[in-house]
């Protein structure tokens, strides 16, 4: 089984044996946004699959991409960052490879992987909340991820109020936004959220302010998903999940202060790191061969 | 089939034939909060079932109550308003009636009823958002309501910021809160939200202020549930849903202003009114006989 995860900058591919063990992996630079990005993503995917096939011939391939994905039709509906719309990746890649192809969404695939073999292992239901270049969420229930026609989980788009202004959650709380907001406020050219985290720990007040605003905004998402879904576990992934107690302590305090019901979930860091998407893609491929459908979309419910 | 819905003040019972047609209905006053409320609710339920049985002998009974309900164990975990905790209603009522008893949650049962035969008919997924004495939500997906161990949907408990203060959503946006906040602000002894709605239409500025704050708070819930779940339809129920355009127009404007993705749900009034819970209770009973489980809880997922 091969799983391929097309990220905003990097594409990761992983080869698993039948028992789910990782045999090999490859990475490549995701083609930049252009008129032929989808074609070049297909080329890159075929090339990575070819390299991995030298270790062991895959019996199926899973491909996952960001943006709006309709799993039922196997179509990438929209990616603002990669600049495509309505690309039927599943049939296109299947024809190129001559193999069964499962096609899905990077975050929902990551949620599946964290649920089957990561931080949400054993939980009856869980929410995966990756905080990286964007912020999104995926709800796993009865082993299936909710897709909502491809649109479920776009919490990064919710307007929140910060410093008296209404901005989208991910313009405050994504790892990218944290670095950018600190640069804008101080002129200090930090590389990203990890630098800001170090500055917070070193006592930099501007860093603490930017960080607190991000955590406050993520706290809104945490409270609302707890109220609506009452998951047992919330798995925070993406780059920001590596911040440790600087992130998880205030989130836990927020839940304790603002959520009085007995349903407060555990909030834990992801275990699979940036491989969650590619491992999840391989799970989609394995499930395809076993005629299991790990994603609940709308079309098939009709 | 009989369905019984224990409300905060009134208990409603409905008798359905095998095709789902309503043959008869009865109502009774819910016993007040006391040490023996649960016992007296059982007495009342048996009495209502007995009256309805004069029309046609029921083959099963569904009972739904408010608060925290664990459908799998058939237990009412907690009701702050009715003052009980850990009452095993399903076996207690089953023993009293000598009939199969399905036990559930009033809002989740109402969601089922609106999905099968009300305003969410035909939708692949839907959220039921009753705004009455409290505010809660239930997500129906693939025909099943998500329970989250009994805790899913408690959106009324989410803190929101109103006039610079953090208060629970249902302390601002429930039908009860709207009446109370207007009384507190003006001294005008209105009976409830319907009176406030009339005052808004008559141009009363204090009423408009209270109303706008409620709608603003409900707008938060609407945006977050849209972002997390991307339902096709949001069915607003409870007393407030009778306010018509005064409620639905600003909610639609809020979605249009704050949600740019193509996933914005239709927001529509409930069709089954205050019978949604009892009709849903009867559906639970019918599903019990057919060995279908319309509620996804945690326990059975383990």
From TrEMBL, chains A, B:
<dbReference type="InterPro" id="IPR000600">
    <property type="entry name" value="ROK"/>
</dbReference>
<protein>
    <submittedName>
        <fullName>ROK family protein</fullName>
    </submittedName>
</protein>
<dbReference type="InterPro" id="IPR043129">
    <property type="entry name" value="ATPase_NBD"/>
</dbReference>
<dbReference type="Pfam" id="PF00480">
    <property type="entry name" value="ROK"/>
</dbReference>
<comment type="similarity">
    <text>Belongs to the ROK (NagC/XylR) family.</text>
</comment>
